[in-house]
Amino acid sequence: MSTLVQISILPHKQEDLDYILELALEKAKMRRKDIIDWRIRKRSIDARRKPVKLNLQIAFYHTEDDKKPPSEFISQNVTNSQEVAIIGSGPAGLFAALRAVEAGLKPIIFERGKDVRERRRDLAAINKEHIVNPESNYCFGEGGAGTYSDGKLYTRSKKRGNVLKSLEWFTFFGADEDILIESHPHIGTNKLPKIISTMREAIIEAGGEVHFNSKLTDLNISDGNIKGITINDSKEYAFDNVILATGHSARDIFYLLHKHNIKIEAKPFAIGVRIEHQQELIDYIQYHGDCDNSFLPPASYALVEQVEGMGVYSFCMCPGGIIAPCATEQEEVVTNGWSPSKRNNPYANSGIVVSVSPEDLPNYTPGDPFVCLDFQKKVERDCWVAAGKTQKVPAQRMQDFIDGKVSEDFPKTSYQPGITAVDLNKVLPDIIARRLKKAFIAFGKKMRGYNSNDAVLHAPESRTSSPVSIPRDTMTLEHIEVKGLYPCGEGAGYAGGIISAAIDGINCVDAIALKLANSNPE
Q1: Which has the closest alpha carbon to 89: 228, 227, 200, 195?
Q2: DSSP code of residue 496
Q3: Per-residue pLDDT, 294
Q4: 321 with 343: CB under 8 angstroms?
Q5: φ, ψ for residue 457, nearest 5 deg
Q6: pLDDT by residue (tens digit) across 209-251?
Q7: Fewest CB atoms within 10 A around its CB: which of 111, 160, 460, 488?
Q8: Contacts of 70 (CB under 8 A, 6+ apart)
């Protein structure tokens, strides 16, 4: 059995493995001859006080049996196996497909967008020409929303499935093994596309299929069972099992389900702004004024405040990052953030969002599944109008927002399409703007210097999660009304990021495999 020990070191000692080993052995009251091997199992930054330290969890192995090998992807030929349709090739869909191959099932992925390489052209068109392709953008396409918006792998979903296995599959397909160690692992938008395409190649090599530019447009349902799907309004396919992993922005899927009288529900979500500071300022605040940060990564932060009964919190914080345009329709604007693997841009950005429940909204009607979605759409369109009906976004310096005056000028921003000066108090709904102002004042007290007028608010940050959920049976994971239909991942309301979505994709395939095994006992 391995021994775990916790130690703290100064950042400049993190590459001195002999020092780390001796310190850990001393803490564990062990000698080198007592172990056959060791490794750093977890690493996190302790910046609660000066000097900033690194907390390390060290694993000591006493026998070869203690060293569990990483979970590798185990492929097999599934060319002629039982087929499973997977709608969407985000992390839920991709990991569902990989797990299907392992389980001896043939995954057939239908992705409305393009592959990672072709998708880049449409991202460039948004940034440079303000043209939104509704089928290929930052949200839609191979890899899903996370591929070109960061690749953060942190999750709190420890009880939903095997987090370590999901991380180890990422390393198997090319991610740096540091993601297995860091407390908040991150791959980076510059590295993710290659990893995603390698996963796709493995799926195809095993006998699975991946179809791009293939949008789900209808469902064939009979007597409460899924019978098949229609792609691009023309091609019909017969399937008994369909995993619906379409992501939080596939609004057409919600309308399709509603058209078929398949139950969907309004779901709490969050909406607000994306704020951008100079990364140097965040480093100074978080590292207590210590400017010698050559051994520390760009600093991040996490903030939360209860304001008038609603939570206001930081979301998807991106050290050394860039703000991206993430609209999925032409007549809307949406922001999100991402960082390259080195997180070496001069800006730090984060969503600052207000939790919203259906009952909080002025037009709430019990049973209306679209009340939150309609609210989200209105905010995005109002911001599009306020910024001049382009992919520019309405913006305001932080203190100007608190004071209620339009900013006269701006520091340079990372948001490539550009920004337009407005009073966000008049653009955002009052229940959002009012709480944001109070939260920023509170955040300024928690992080001295954070409440700076050099910080710029970009609006809106509105795609934090799906505003609609698709209910499913807690045991079979099938829709509560349609057998063989598996709502999955963020779009269905069962995940909140790359890893939790990947885990949910795996869980859905495991549920299908169990059902098939029970229906065909040997």
Answers
A1: 200
A2: S
A3: 77
A4: yes
A5: -90, 130
A6: 999 999 999 999 999 999 999 999 999 999 999 999 999 999 9
A7: 160
A8: 168, 171, 172, 180
Identify whether 362 is preceded by a cis peptide bond (ω within 30 of 0).
Answer: no
Instruction: Return the percent helix, strand and coil in the chain, to nearest 5.
Output: 30, 25, 45
Closest CA to 240 of 2, 476, 512, 517: 512
Give me the pLDDT at residue 465, please: 93
H helical segments located in 103-249:
116-129, 163-172, 192-205
Q: Where are the beta strands (DSSP E) in 47-183?
A: 53-61, 83-87, 106-110
Alpha carbons 218 and 230: distance in angstroms, whole number:
5
Mean pLDDT for each 10-residue chunk of the chain (522 residues)?
Answer: 92 95 96 93 91 94 81 93 97 97 98 96 96 96 83 64 86 91 85 94 98 98 97 97 97 98 97 97 90 81 96 95 96 94 93 97 93 98 98 98 97 97 98 97 95 96 96 98 97 92 96 93 62
**Phi and psi (nearest 5°) for 479?**
-55, 145
Closest CA to 152 of 322, 354, 318, 324: 318
| H helix or E strand, kind and range, residue 100 | helix 91-102
Compute and round to an integer the Cα radius of gyration of the chain. 24
Distance, CA of 486 to CA of 477 (rounded, Å): 6
The residue assigned the tokens 């900033």 is: 52
